[in-house]
Design goal:
This protein is mainly α. The chain has one domain. Helix content is 81%, strand content 0%. Helix 1 packs across helix 5, helix 3 runs antiparallel to helix 4 and helix 4 runs antiparallel to helix 5. The chain is elongated. 26% of the residues are buried.
Length: 148
């Protein structure tokens, strides 16, 4: 068999895909750390001054069907608990879906949102969707527990 350009190209492509496959756990971990940090910090901001948080949910964020107090409590709890689960990859898909919902409600509940802020929320939503669909990767507690 001769070494044709097509065979060399296929061998090169196989090497590239193998390298990308090896990068998947790191990519998933970096995505988890990035979005978890954003939402966890937001939750910490909310608990620093609870009166202002409830006031924001009363006047600024119009969450449908929930009282401002309950919306503030649920949103803050989601922003504090779900990122921790996501970082560890424990119930990672559940955490990613939960944060996807928190993110979507944040966008829906704001009467006005700047284009740059909307783009950030879209980016976060895509990362949450990918983590929910593909899982949190091999460097997650879920992966380790499932193997056991």
């Amino acid at each position: 068999m001769e070494n044709t350009p097509i065979k060399r190209g296929l061998a090169l492509w196989a090497s590239v895909t193998q390298t990308l496959d090896l990068a998947q756990p790191l990519a998933a971990l970096l995505a988890r750390l990035y979005v978890a940090q954003v939402f966890f910090m937001s939750g910490l901001t909310k608990i620093r001054d609870w009166e202002i948080t409830v006031s924001l949910f009363t006047d600024e964020y119009k969450v449908p069907y929930l009282s401002p107090e309950l919306a503030a409590l649920l949103g803050t709890a989601g922003e504090l608990v779900l990122p921790v689960l996501l970082v560890f990859g424990l119930m990672g898909r559940f955490a990613a879906l939960g944060l996807f919902v928190v993110n979507a409600i944040a966008v829906i509940s704001l009467s006005e949102i700047a284009p740059a802020a909307l783009q950030q929320h879209i980016t976060w939503g895509v990362l949450f969707a990918l983590l929910a669909i593909y899982g949190c990767g091999k460097w997650a507690l879920d992966h380790w527990l499932i193997k056991r």
